[in-house]
Amino acid sequence: MNxxxxxxxxxxxxxxxxxxxxxxxxxxxxxxxxxxxxxxxxRHSSLLSPLTYVRFFTHVLGHSGWSHFMGNATYxxxxxxxxxxxxxxxxxxKVILITAVVTALVSYILFPSVAxxxxxxxxxxxxxxxxxxxFRAGExxxxxxxxxxxxxxxxxxxxxxxxxxxxxxxxxVGGIVxxxxxxxxxxxx
Length: 189
Description:
The protein is mainly alpha-helical and 189 residues long. The protein has a single domain (12-188), classed as Rhomboid-like (Rhomboid-like fold), CATH 1.20.1540.10. The chain is built from 8 helices and no strands. The protein has helices at residues 12-30, 34-39, 50-58, 66-87, 89-110, 120-130, 142-161, 168-188. Helix 4 packs across helix 5 and helix 5 (89-110) packs across helix 6 (120-130). The chain is globular. The relative contact order is 0.13.
């Protein structure tokens, strides 16, 4: 019995999201960062500009360079297919869009001088959402508590004591979004 192996698209939303991130990163490099600043980076711009609202969603596609892109793409490709299989493609699109908007709004309101780009908030939403895959009513998975303490705790620590260009706030907010969605979706089942 000689069966041929074939490549299958197992997570279309994840693959499309990473492909869009890749294209936005390439475009940013080709334009010397101009396209990233214009389309893929939130900042405190006028609420009268339609691009302000577009960037609330598209900032998760832009990345500051290859290492930034590769780090986020790796986590998304690792965690995303499991989440897409469990919750479905449309649900995963909702997680990405909700995380994008919430992280952008929090940054816009609380840190008006900070520009935000990258899918790190989505990565942290996926991490916390993944920890709910074994959730049962009336129980809190120990893995969720450990992930929350380790990942969120690390971000709080780095936000206070490490001065870099990383937005720990988007990581924390993304993690909270993933935890709330995971709790809500899994409480119903």
